[in-house]
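Thread: "does anyone have the structure for this chain?"

Original post by V.I.:
We have the sequence but no experimental structure in hand. Need at least a predicted one for the grant figures.
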Amino acid sequence: MDAADIISTYGAGLATVLAAQQILVWLRNRPRIKVSAQITYHLLGKDELASCVGTPMIVQSGDDFQFEEAVVTMNIANSGSLPLQISAVLLENPGADANTIAITQIVPTPLPHTLDPRTSIEVEFQKEWIDMTEGVSFIGVVDALGRRHGLSPDEARELLEESWRLPTRVAEYSRRDDPSKTAYAFQQRDPGTTSTHKVETGRRRPTLLVTRPWPPDQVTVKTGDKNISIPAVPVQPRGGVKKGSRQKTLEAKWLSNAKSGDRQPPE
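Reply from O.Q.:
Generated one for you, tokens below.
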């Protein structure tokens, strides 16, 4: 082997080592996105019931009763050493046909957002996006490169099951194009779109994390600018608080109002 061959071999080997080092550096410093989510509750005044983003309900706090809204709060954290833009919250569920999937992208404030290294953000959005589904195969976020970052299966199941247990704004409406048919919908307060995609040939539809019967059996909450219509909803005890006589009286009044057609929440 002459000098030229030795130099050529050395150069090729050095280039391979440098490329491997660059890959290792990128793997060590790449963005690492962790997503977690839960249902959270915010205190409401009675005058906020019609305009709130979340789902209004009445809850017990000790011996007192108060209006609260339920929303999904999602924490998105970047533990890597490189920034990454988070584009939207992503929800994937079965499509209407056996070979399709429905993909929903929700863009609550402050998304899209560039997540700097070792920082995190919280976003809140309507839980009705979840309530519109009978089963979910993915929930998380999508970044600007199209990569997904999801909740763990256990956390996703816990989130969906809690949302489905609570009241919802999703309701059944007559279709405008054919009043003899109905569809489920809700008033959208977060920017978002749902699109249907065909499953690629030879691939299976994603496995569902959790399912439920459809149509849903959730209690429906309806609000308007001039009228608040909330069907009788059991008060949700918090912190292991047991029902007392005041709560029973309040529930009885609400039930009585609902049956008589007066759907105003009790004072």
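V.I.: this helps a lot. Residues 237-267 have pLDDT under 50 and may be disordered.
O.Q.: and The longest strand covers residues 64-78.
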